[in-house]
Amino acid sequence: MIALAQSEVALDPDSFRSIADLAYQESGLTLVEEKTSMIQSRLRHRLRALKLDDFAAYCAVLKSDAGRSERRHLISALTTNVSHFFREAHHFDQLADLFDARAAALRAGGRMRIWSAGCSNGQEALSAAITLAERAPDLSQLNLKILATDIDQNVVQFARDAQYPQRFMRGVTTEMRSKYFNVTTEENGEKHYSVAPSTRQLIQFNALNLLGQWPIRTKFDVIFCRNVVIYFDAETQEQLWPRFLEVLHPDGLLFLGHSERIAEPEKFGFECIGPTTYRPLPQ
Ligand SMILES: C[S@@+](CC[C@H](N)C(=O)[O-])C[C@H]1O[C@@H](n2cnc3c(N)ncnc32)[C@H](O)[C@@H]1O
Q: Which residues form the CheR-type methyltransferase domain (predicted)?
């Protein structure tokens, strides 16, 4: 038998179904057959890393008791982590307005909590931190914290490291770069921007699967969950809305991504108050 080069190993239909079922159970990701070739190319490096000949053998590893850590690699390979600073900028304007409305109460000892749920490499949480720092030079003295979570431990670690190569910096003005980042130049000549400690310390980055338990004992003023539920089916999305409502302040805001919506917001206790912006229905 002639061994196939890894670049030619095909994702067979049975393995596709096993991988799709696992991805759905573990993370809510819905994989459709039309994406077979994309999934195949995203997973070939896992076959190489494990020295496996085909996807059937890979599925056997995933399903075994020892496959737990491989399932994490699987989810990491399958998730789409695209993000950028100040993406969908209108939400950061709304955040700034909300902060202004609460600033006096905050300065009198109140608190504000923000959650970037599905934070990817941290650019969303940092954009929130920079937005607020621009509004309040005394931000570090206020009781304001940002929680940023993602199922993919690789992106969480990247976000914790808080080092952004130049190519990640689109959307950050020159003035912001000098205020909130320190610049270093790598051996290959590419600039790297490390987040200034005063900004970095506003954010706590944690791994968290939105479909699992949420060890959260606070109410959030703002939840960003943008460009995440687009990968979930309607049933999975509908399980999330009541959970967000439960951890959202009665006058807090939930931001979704540009192509996401709560189909029947009132049914889930929300009202839509602007493009992809929701708040709890008044009680
Ligand atoms: C396209 S990125 C969006 C990043 C950012 N929110 C934005 O809009 O720029 C989607 C992120 O959702 C994360 N994600 C997917 N399924 C998840 C789940 N079940 N729990 C938590 N995060 C999840 C992915 O790992 C990925 O980093």
A: 4-283
Pair (99, 33) in one structural domain? no
273 and 157 together in one domain:
yes
Question: For residue 256, what pLDDT is reported?
Answer: 98
Q: Does some domain include residue 83?
A: no
Based on the residue annotation, tell me whether 42 is a catalytic residue of this protein.
Answer: yes
pLDDT for the residue numbered 1: 46
51 inside domain: yes
Q: With contact defined as beta carbons under 8 Å apart, do 238 and 270 qualify?
A: no
67-92 pLDDT per residue, tens = 989 999 999 999 999 999 999 999 99
Checking if the pLDDT of 6 tops 60, the result is no
Residue from 31, 80, 120 to probe ligand 1 pocket by mutation (most atoms less than 8 Å from CB): 120
Nearest to 21 by CA among 73, 62, 61: 62
For residue 226, give the nearest of 145, 111, 146, 148 by alpha carbon: 148
Write down which residue in 51, 78, 105 finishes a domain. Answer: 78
